[in-house]
C-alpha cells in the first residue's frame, strides 16, 4: 500500500504565497518523478511542475518564475512553493509520484488539496 498525504492548501489573496507538501509512504523502493498537477472547475488536469530524482525540474509556462518545486528524497516528500499567486491559480492541486514498488513501476495520485486565490 502507498499513501500520499498532501497539505498546505488554503485561501490566500492575490500576490500571496502558499507552500504545498506531499509525503509518500508505503512500499516504495525509489521515486523517479514527483510532480504537482492542478485542475480548475471545468478544465482538464494540467501539469504544474515536476522534479526527477536527480533534481531536474519542469514547469508549466504559466507558473515559471513564481513557483518552485523541490524534494527531500530522504523523506519521500515533494514541496511546491507558490509565490505571487493569481486568481487563475485557483484549483485543486494533486501530488503525483512515479515510483518503483515491489512488483514494478507505478504511478500514484494524492487526494488533492484546494488552493483558492481571491482577487
Walk me through what this model shows:
The protein is mainly β and 119 residues long. 0% of the residues lie in helices and 61% in strands. It has no helices and eleven strands. The chain has strands spanning 2-7, 10-13, 18-26, 30-39, 46-52, 57-59, 67-72, 77-82, 91-100, 105-109, 113-118. Strands 2, 4, 5, 6, 9, 10 and 11 form a seven-stranded mixed sheet that branches. It has a four-stranded antiparallel sheet with strand order 1-3-8-7, with no helix packed on it. Strand 9 (91-100) and strand 10 (105-109) form a beta hairpin. It is elongated.
The end-to-end distance, rounded to whole angstroms, is 40 Å
Overall number of strands: 11
Share in helix: under 10%
- Name the helix and strand elements from N-terminus to C-terminus, one letter apiece: EEEEEEEEEEE
- Secondary structure category: mainly beta
Low-pLDDT parts are none
User: For the report, how would you describe the main beta sheet?
Assistant: 7 strands, mixed
Specify the overall morphology: elongated
- Radius of gyration, Cα only, in angstroms? 14 Å
Mean pLDDT: 96
- Provide the β-strand percentage band: over 45%
Helix segment tally? 0
Sequence-ordered SSE layout with sheet pairings:
Blueprint: E1 2-7, E2 10-13, E3 18-26, E4 30-39, E5 46-52, E6 57-59, E7 67-72, E8 77-82, E9 91-100, E10 105-109, E11 113-118
Parallel strand pairs: 2-11
Antiparallel strand pairs: 1-3, 3-8, 4-5, 4-9, 5-6, 7-8, 9-10, 9-11
Give a nutshell description of this structure:
The protein is mainly beta and 119 residues long. It has no helices and 11 strands.
Amino acid at each position: 500500500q502507498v499513501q500520499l498525504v498532501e497539505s498546505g492548501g488554503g485561501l490566500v489573496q492575490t500576490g500571496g504565497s502558499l507552500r504545498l507538501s506531499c509525503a509518500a509512504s508505503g512500499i516504495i523502493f525509489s521515486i523517479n518523478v514527483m510532480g504537482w498537477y492542478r485542475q480548475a472547475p471545468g478544465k482538464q488536469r494540467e501539469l504544474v511542475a515536476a522534479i526527477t530524482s536527480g533534481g531536474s525540474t519542469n514547469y508549466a509556462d504559466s507558473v515559471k518564475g513564481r513557483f518552485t518545486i523541490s524534494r527531500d528524497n530522504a523523506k519521500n516528500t515533494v514541496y511546491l512553493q507558490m509565490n505571487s499567486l493569481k486568481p487563475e491559480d485557483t484549483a485543486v492541486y494533486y501530488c503525483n509520484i512515479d515510483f518503483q514498488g515491489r512488483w514494478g513501476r507505478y504511478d500514484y495520485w494524492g487526494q488533492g488539496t484546494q488552493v483558492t486565490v481571491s482577487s
